[in-house]
Amino acid sequence: MLTEDYYVANKLMKGFIGSANIDTNSRLCMASSVAGHRRAFGADTVPACYEDLELADLVVLVGSNMAWCHPVLYQRLAAAKAARPSMKVVVIDPRKTATSDIADLHLAVRADGDIALFNGLLNYLSETGAVDENYVSRHTSGFPEALMAASPGSVSDLSEATGVSGMLIRQFYRLFGETEKVVTCYSQGVNQSAVGTDKVNAIINCHLATGRIGRPGMGPLSLTGQPNAMGGREVGGLANMLAAHMAIENPVHRDRVQRFWNSPTIADRPGLKAVDMFEAVADGRIKAVWIMSTNPVVSMPDADSVKAALQACPFVVVSDIQQDTDTARLAHVLLPATGWGEKSGTVTNSERWISRQRPFLSAPGEARADWWQMAEVGKRMGFGPAFDYSGEAQIFAEHAALSAFENEGERDFDIGAHAVISHGAYKELQPFQWPLRGDGSKLARFFADGGFFTADRRARLVPVETPALEKTDGRFPFTLNTGRIRDHWHTMTRTGKSARLSAHIAEPFCEIHPADAAQAGIGDADLVHVEGENGRSIIVRALLTERQMRGSVFVPMHWTGETAPSARVDTLVPRRVDPVSGQPALKMARVSIARHEAQAHGFLVTAKRPLDLPFAYWAIARTEGGYRLEFAGDQPADGWEEWLRRSLRLDERQDFSGYLDRQARDHRLLAFDGEHLLAALFVSPEPVSVSRQWAVEQLKERHLDSRTRSMLIAGRPAAGRPDKGAIVCSCFSVGINEISAAAHRGCRSVEAVGLVLNAGTNCGSCRPEIRRILDATQTLAAE
Ligand SMILES: Nc1nc2c(c(=O)[nH]1)N[C@H]1C(S)=C(S)[C@@H](COP(=O)(O)OP(=O)(O)OC[C@H]3O[C@@H](n4cnc5c(=O)[nH]c(N)nc54)[C@H](O)[C@@H]3O)O[C@H]1N2
Ligand SMILES: Nc1nc2c(c(=O)[nH]1)N[C@H]1C(S)=C(S)[C@@H](COP(=O)(O)OP(=O)(O)OC[C@H]3O[C@@H](n4cnc5c(=O)[nH]c(N)nc54)[C@H](O)[C@@H]3O)O[C@H]1N2
Ligand SMILES: [Mo]
């Protein structure tokens, strides 16, 4: 959603329909940051900017897998550290992720142990004289109370509460205490928690107490999720906001916005937040819902209840750019929207820079801009003049004018300089940072000299209680952590269509510590059955790794009914929300794990998408020229050959070359169309060991002679036909075997690998993995 889309949605709902039952996807993503900012600063202000990452002497990354999720910014940080190695990076994450690649310290904090850690830090700063008394007394209130709440007595044992050794904690505290220029970045490991807002404030408290805010190289910096979550926040798209950073509870603000919109009504109280909203759909309080640019049947907690709610809802409208998504399938009316590359408008990034997004493709079919769809509905509801927009430029100008309307510096969000922007100027608009006021004044950073947006212009240090340790439950002994992988975006409606992006990780998985797996009798590449407290379960592939802490497992959020129906992880995540922000605790569910037994395991490479998949587990991914399918379950009643024929719509005349090892119960079936491979099926009672990348590439090869065909049956490359192994660099399709070979030939650095293979030289997001492969090769060589 571009800012113009969000603006029209919010105006239609709050000003004309008169309800605040509208929520942006930020509820799942940034709501705790918004709430934390508002509690501390009086407004949803991001005080710092990206340059601060380069100017800092210490960068603390909390609950952020920046290497995979903000790869461009991460590369900028990595470059800054490489240029100035004295700069320190600390990563705080229960898992050791790719982001730890550049970390001087990794604190494997236990789930939600962050508050104990930052409360402990506040204490330490106070005890060691690191508090900036001058800043605290001139610009803040609440310091004594915050310190009291953080007092050492509040936790019996800091190591226990955080899961981090005393030695590491002391190292981190000393570093933070001694370094003036500190930036603390945080993301979903902080926000998506039942104590998310408190986590945000525990972090901000440490910056306020040391006065390290708003100056070059210093400050808290919330890393935004969606490319334009910030735009959604600026127009007030959240159920509890109004518009242009004004508050729905404030009668002066309501009156002001209503006068500006010249609207018949104005929502006078916060609406239902996303989780409550779908509950209201479920129990019939809400009878019509318009879902735009989000796929809640996959991404909401307790996702099956969301699905059931939509199935029972009398009127469901979905605007999407894809015809088939788990949510679009439930729509009574499906509206085709223009997507990235086709639509025009503006977006705001994490450091408050607003940029134009310009279309370079024409809209396909009947697709229309999201704002246009809503404006047309507004007009037909009789609100003509208010929605009679000539284009995005006019919407943007109105949004800019509202930001400046009766704003005497009392509101942070002010882009009044563009209040009367022309179509031509909008077309040419260059990126700019907000605020950019009518008089042209700007501000790269906020709050170096106070000036907060509270009534007394002081920041609030919020007293934050350290939560009690979660009790472990005998039946559900594991913490389920969820999140993202490098090459997929959320519910994969776009990245899932790309063979290249699907090559890196083609299957849903569960990261488990090897010792936990051993106890549960789970081997690497087995399937795991993960069961949640709500009795629902998923089946995914086991990935044993010591980068995962004991007692916790990690499952990515991306797989859907389209791509792996047994792997929709949000079906297990309860509807537990942060009481302040309403953001769901998506990083913390209680689960049990067990080995999933299957009669047969299969791997299929096919030129056509297979239909009819009667298996307990399957996961499909695009490849160049076709698909790859992993599956496990019972043998179809009519046998593998008949199933394959049916599934791929092959006619009777189609011949199979086959191989059956009765003893091992291994089946291999190949189908060709002339010299091209149509399908290669490998079935075995154990997880199939076939080089996947090599097999997938056979779809592109010509298979003339029986020798290469027999190699295919054997499931391994013929001599002289290299197997690149699993893809590491998606930009240049470079596999792990090629990188290991380069390492054996003497490449010692990521740069050297880049020179010979190109790997890692484009987007850079595979550089941490390349380094790990080099380290592993060198360790092996040393042994
Ligand atoms: N490749 C890719 N990039 C993306 C996206 C994508 O889908 N794919 N989505 C975008 C969006 S919308 C978002 S919101 C961002 C998210 O970006 P991130 O927040 O960086 O990504 P996540 O993987 O959700 O979670 C980050 C980390 O939080 C850790 N974590 C879990 N629980 C805790 C805890 O209690 N404390 C701490 N300190 N850490 C914890 C997890 O182990 C995980 O490594 O990524 C954006 N970028
Ligand atoms: N377990 C777990 N669940 C999570 C998270 C997690 O870490 N763990 N993260 C949460 C977070 S931070 C986020 S941001 C959400 C993301 O969750 P969603 O927002 O539900 O996921 P997307 O796949 O980004 O859905 C976007 C939809 O919009 C469509 N679309 C794309 N462009 C356009 C457009 O221009 N117009 C229209 N109308 N449609 C368009 C896409 O095809 C897709 O169907 O997931 C949340 N859910
Ligand atoms: Mo997000």
UniProtKB/TrEMBL annotation:
Chain ranges passing through the membrane: none
GO biological process: cellular respiration; nitrate assimilation
Record bears the keyword Metal-binding: yes
Example of a GO MF term: oxidoreductase activity
One family name in Pfam for this protein: Fer2_BFD
Named cofactor requirement(s): Mo-bis(molybdopterin guanine dinucleotide); [4Fe-4S] cluster
Domain Molybdopterin oxidoreductase: 3-380
Gene3D superfamilies: 2.40.40.20, 3.40.50.740, BFD-like [2Fe-2S]-binding domain, Dimethylsulfoxide Reductase, domain 2
Family in the record: Belongs to the prokaryotic molybdopterin-containing oxidoreductase family. NasA/NapA/NarB subfamily.
Protein name, per record: Assimilatory nitrate reductase catalytic subunit
Species in which this protein is naturally found: Rhizobium soli
Phylogenetic placement of the source organism: Bacteria, Pseudomonadati, Pseudomonadota, Alphaproteobacteria, Hyphomicrobiales
